[in-house]
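Good morning C.,

I know you're traveling, so I'll keep this short. The sequence:
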Amino acid sequence: MSITRLVLNGFRNHKNFDVTLTSKFVAIYGHNGAGKTNLLEAISLFAPGKGFKNASSEEIFYKNDNRFLAEGDSAIEASGAPGIEDPEIKGSSATETSRLSAEVSGSHKSTGILREWVVSCTILHHNDSFSLTTGCMMDNYQNASRRIIKVNDEVSGRSSELLSYLKVIWITPQTDRIFLEPPAVRRKFLDRITYNFFPMHAVNIVNYEKLIKSRLKIIQESSFDELWVGTIEKQIAELNYKIYKNRAECLLMIKEALKLNSNNFLKPDISLIGSVDSFIEKCEGDAIFHIQEKLKHNRRIDALSGRTNFGIHKTDIEASHPTKLIKANQCSTGEQKAMLISIILAQIKSIKQISSTPVILLLDEVFSYFDENFRHNLIEELVAIDAQVWITTANEQIIQEISYPKDIIRI
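The tokens, ready to paste straight into the viewer:
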């Protein structure tokens, strides 16, 4: 079991939302625009970054708009197998939750925006319970504070620390196009997977991006300190190597775990492609030294072009159909979605092989894209993995197809 309680205050269209859960499957049902995806987004904020919508804190504040639900419009109902106790019905109450501040702030009456948004969840794992909280305050000038993260009411310094307590994985309609998107989108997708295996990978990526910007700014000046630039290039070279090794090892684990997936799912061939990746693979001797020399050699080219032309920020991930031997972007939409699901399932299986950290899988309108037979196979595969699965749908039949104990949240 993973999340046993989820509380939202002032989060998008959920003014006060409080639900208690008991099942592996959580199905969120409601019409389009009701706020189903917002619940998943709230959970995604317990992963490093800004959640799957990549939203700023300012965008998340509850706004009193006619499009949004009134307080009390959300409810939870139980749907369990015989002999299984039904979940407690909490609905959308004003119950107090873990707050970021000691006092609950008021609202901007002129704008209808609450001054605070908070997401809190209680997690049960191996009979131990702990809480995670994140949120943001708004001052009288409508400026949002920096988002705060708490673990058991203790402030956490980095969002990457959340990976020690919970690993959140998702598939959204935007993720479905991963094989058709530019390389930067797939690279971000790969890095998000890698975070779950190597928590410091997120920090390495941030530091790398800062350093290449700093180097580029310096070498574009008419004169600069070569010793200083050399020091920066050495740091960049070290991070290139660390990031490459983490990505490569992560991909290797995913490829091994793909073999564990049911034969009902496509098992794509996946690999890293990019100049620095092949450079490191072929490099003899000290790879970091050779990367540093390459950066030094490219100074003039980089300065004139206004970008860093060699580095781990150019990497792409390539996937191919296992039997047709064609690239994923040339496959049908259904095949692409099936390959994506296979990779996500393999990721979860890999995580559980090396870690006992709870895993949450968020599936936003994923089931509606597949026929009933594929949905049945997917449900059976999800039952077998050690993760709590959150599903959104506007189709009640899909909920009925889940014959296992489940919590249903109707919005």
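Safe travels,
E.
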